[in-house]
Amino acid sequence: MRVAVPHTLPKAEVRRRLDEKQGDIAGFVPGGMADVETSWASEDRMTMTIRAMGQELTGNVDIEDDAVVFNIALPLALSFVEPMISGAIEEKGRKLLT
């Protein structure tokens, strides 16, 4: 699943905000029962491991010039919740950048 959240900020500011608010990413998962571990793989990529609903998901957040792109490997068993998760990521991702 790929969700792009547009922004008009300099990359350094996006990195700062993501770093400062990375604990808020757990709230992106509907139901609020997620455990999220993050780390910076590079200057423009944060990796994530998300444990929720009995599943472990992996993904990353890429900082692009005009968008923050959330990529999450969603297993087939959870594909039915993809619209709900992508909507939450888009909505909360915008708030994360403000």
From TrEMBL:
Protein name: Polyhydroxyalkanoic acid system protein
